[in-house]
Amino acid sequence: MTTYTEYLKERREQEWREELRKKLKGKERTDQPRVHMPEVDPNERVKSQTVEVNLGLGREEAIKEASRCMDCVNPTCIEGCPVGINIPEFIKNIEREEFSLAAKTLKMYNALPAVCGRVCPQEKQCESKCFYTIKLNKPAVAIGYLERFAADWERESGSMDVPQCAPSNGIKVAAVGSGPSSLSFAGDMVKLGYDVTVFEALHEIGGVLKYGIPEFRLPNRMVDVELDILKKMGVKFVTNFIVGRTASFEQLKEEGFKGFFVGSGAGLPRFMNIPGENYNGIMSSNEYLTRVNLMGANNDEFDTPVLRGKNVAVIGGGNTAMDSVRTAKRLGAERAMIVYRRSRVEMPARVEEVKHAEEEGVEFLNLTNPIEYFADEKGRVNKMRLQLMELGEPDASGRRSPVEIPGATQDIDVDLVIVAVGVSPNPLIPASLPDLKVSRWGTIEVNDGMQSSIPVLFAGGDIVRGGATVILAMGDGRNAAKSMHEYLSDQKD
Amino acid sequence: MNRIVEKEFFSENVVKLVVEAPLIAKARKPGNFVILRVSENGERIPLTIAGADVEKGTITLIAQKVGVSTEKLAALNVGDSLIDLVGPLGKATDIHKVGTVLCCGGGVGVAPLLPIVEGFKKAGNRVVSVLAARSKDLIILEDEVRKWSDEVIVMTDDGSHGRKGLVTQGAEEVILREKIDECIAIGPAIMMKFTSLLTKKYNIPTQASLNAMMVDGTGMCGACRVSVGGKTKFTCVDGPEFDAHQIDFDELMMRLGGYKSEEKEAFEIYNKMLDCKI
User: Fold this and answer.
1) Scanning every residue of chain B, which has its alpha carbon at the shortest distance from the alpha carbon of A241?
2) Of A240, A280, A303, which is closest to B69 when you measure between CB atoms?
3) From B37, which residue of chain A is nearest by alpha-carbon distance?
4) In the predicted model, what is the mean pLDDT of residues A430-434?
5) Does residue A429 lie in a domain region?
6) Which single residue of A455, B145, B209, B256 has CA 20 to 30 Å from A327?
7) What is the pLDDT of residues B13-72, one digit of tens each?
8) CB-based contact (8 Å) between A377 and chain B?
9) How crowded is residue A156: how many other Cβ atoms within 10 Å of its Cβ?
10) Contact yes or no for A106/A100 (Cβ under 8 A)
């Protein structure tokens, strides 16, 4: 059996790659500046919840950017990718204008390239390990933009490649939840010949990709196209089905399911437990984004309403906070504010999201933390009290910790507050499986192969991690598929 | 899927629907609820399950018209299907043998109360039920409740059926007369608040089932949060039933009014739309 490193080496030694490497001198590649992502003008884009901010690279821009990639002997970028995409191979395919092969390469490792090309924090992953970043101190090859280009090109070409699957082995496996970890798991398992069914509690497939991430960052149709490929590969999807409630794990086992992957997501939004937090007009980012993204509350043709505000404060500094505050801006807020207890440097949100939010006129009240809410006679929030903070010593996360400045508070007018301070694991699955080992935070405990204390049950994504990214969830799905395959193969013998 | 097989109006605004849902019929327990959608662009509506027939594979839902979405639900006919139906959700009622149980239902709250009455009776308890509504036509499921109760007291605000008076009057009479070991109250928030105050006075453990606002119903959004014993709980996954003496009913009522102006506006638009069609 060849290792992945040996495989990558073989691929790199293909004649076309060798020739392509010789086409340009190293300096001709490294002297080129990194491409810029074209964007819709901030004043225009804030008028619509559905206009995608990033426009994507054009053909020539993409080829040029691809030519910056050195096709390194030791492609460290791959180490930064949670799903281990053969990055140089897909990029070199773009350079030689074999775009559909580039897309095909992506799909060997990643069930959702058009999604990942848009929402992955590449600057912290592949691009942080790029030769340009670590050796040249220059901006990395725009791996994320190129991933998006290849995936978009293939979709727009109208002939989507459906990855090859092994002949059916007739073994039924289930994925619980239809977010990124389950989809990644489903894609890998169906390729191995399994009969895969994905069960989703909501009425739509896609999990956080649908209810969470707004359309201006990830259009729903991108997700639908990738779901369509999975369907063509044979993955079955069942909506409105809560495993453990609508039917128990035991019932599903009786129906022939041999393995389960739980990717049920983070679920419960956290609140801060401060006075006044249950007033009307204060809600979780999950509720706000679900009303808008999943239920269409921004659109008159949909029945679900969402509260609008003139002065909207979003509590938190992560990507969900940025998604919420930018949504508020698009729904007509005059002031859309981020209230974050640390400073810009410690913000966990992607640099691009913060930049986009700033361009769109979002105000950043950094080093402030809400301590109390006030309301009018009807119970609608109208004011919040902020504790002013300063930075102290680094905490366990390595970031400087926020410390209260004694006596320093500030009151500001707000009529809508979105709380985006994280999530806790959803209790539905653990509650239906008393034997399942969970941590004291309620996350499912798994081994290196994502296998839980119940051998036929594997888990990944936020139900294991407690709150992470799309791509880490997808990495878990892949990992779980690999070990479930090994486990079920051993059982057969 | 989710076809409506039976429909009956209890009153102008209260409708009973029997819906095909074999898996839910089999899995549901008293206290559980479902979430449904009537149409592609519709809201997710939470409704407590009022009954089920495992053999026929159906569940019974009872809805009151309170806005656009419930109007649309009530406009469906036998043979139509719900576009989405998911459940059973929420924790089941803790049904056990305790002695004498007082079951208080107000308005459409009698619908979710019915399976609980049945459950407590089947568990070997003496069950006394008090049903209350504004007037006679708003008293629902009386015969069904009678079937599983040792005694039923009906109270109406106007005295058009049973006795004139509030649910608390009927309940207090029973409490003064005999030893009550547990009480269940389901109905409008204000009705549950006063029933809870009454039973607190007599130290009777009481459960109330809350009809908080919800979006997903699976714990994800937190729209249904409620203060119980000073702590924030989610009605959908921690409830819908809680220790009534610990519930902050005033906060619940305030939160139930959170979308009043949006609801009113939507209803006006909906009515105008209907006028145009005519």
Assistant:
1) B86
2) A303
3) A203
4) 86
5) yes
6) B256
7) 899 999 999 999 999 999 999 999 999 999 999 999 999 999 999 999 999 988 888 999
8) no
9) 10
10) no
pLDDT at A15 > cutoff 80? yes
Average pLDDT, rounded, for chain A: 94
Q: What is the pLDDT of residue A1?
A: 54
**Same domain, residue pair A33 and A130:** yes
Interface test with B, best of A220, A272, A278 (most B CBs within 10 A): A278
User: Residue B265 — pLDDT band, cuts 50, 70, 90?
Assistant: confident
Cβ within 8 Å of residue A41, ≥6 positions away: none
For residues A262 and A388, state if they share a domain. no
Tell me how far apart the alpha carbons of residues A112 and A246 are, in angstroms, rounded to a whole number: 28
Which chain B residues contact residue A280 at CB under 8 A? 254-255, 257-258
Mutation pick from A204, A220, A241, A242 vs chain B, by most beta carbons of B within 10 Å, is A242
Separation of alpha carbons B200 and B131, rounded Å:
20
**Distance between A297 CA and the closest CA of chain B, angstroms:** 9
Residue-range domains of chain B with CATH: 2-89 (2.40.30.10), 100-256 (3.40.50.80)
In the structure, what pLDDT confidence band is assigned to residue A493 with cuts at 50, 70 and 90? low
Mean pLDDT of chain B: 93
Name the nearest CA neighbour of A69 among A24, A11, A112.
A24
Cα–Cα distance for residue pair A174/A235, rounded to 1 Å: 10
CB pair distance less than 8 Å for A278 and B251: yes
Domain that holds residue A74: 4-37+53-157
- Residue A481 belongs to a domain with what CATH number? 3.50.50.60
Kindly indicate the confidence band of residue A111, based on its pLDDT and cuts at 50, 70 and 90.
Answer: confident
Task: Provide the ipTM.
Answer: 0.92
Beta-strand runs (E) in A379-445: 381-394, 400-413, 416-419
- Residue A162 domain-assigned? no
Closest by Cβ to B223, choosing from A283, A302, A426: A283
CB A265 within 8 Å of CB A243: no
